[in-house]
Write a structure and sequence with these properties.
By secondary structure, the chain is mostly helical. It has three helices and no strands. It has one domain. The radius of gyration is 23 Å and the shape is rod-shaped.
């Protein structure tokens, strides 16, 4: 039992010591947060645009446009927004990783 408590205490101490964020870590996290917000806004804008398009033509019980052409176009808008958001997230992660990699 003493060994278990000693191990738990050691892991707790190592965890606390290892959790000190450097300025570079904070800057990288800031880049990640900003790009995540930008990606979310991109997704939201595309989804809103697609919904407005569906609203103009009317929706069926599933929320899809009653017009097949409009529904396909709305789906394309959503997919394009998702691809753009994914690109934003990937670029933000590359930038954040570069910031962290530059620190000694």
């Amino acid at each position: 039992m003493k060994n278990l408590l000693a191990c738990a205490a050691l892991f707790a101490i190592l965890g606390i010591v290892g959790c000190n964020e450097t300025p570079a870590d904070r800057k990288a996290d800031s880049v990640r947060d900003a790009t995540q917000n930008q990606a979310d806004a991109t997704r939201d804008a595309a989804n809103e645009s697609a919904e407005q398009m569906r609203d103009r033509t009317g929706k069926d019980v599933t929320g899809s446009s009653v017009d097949a052409t409009t529904e396909r176009h709305a789906d394309q808008i959503e997919k394009a927004g998702e691809r753009k958001a994914d690109q934003i997230e990937a670029e933000g992660e590359r930038k954040a990783d570069a910031i962290e990699d530059r620190t000694p």
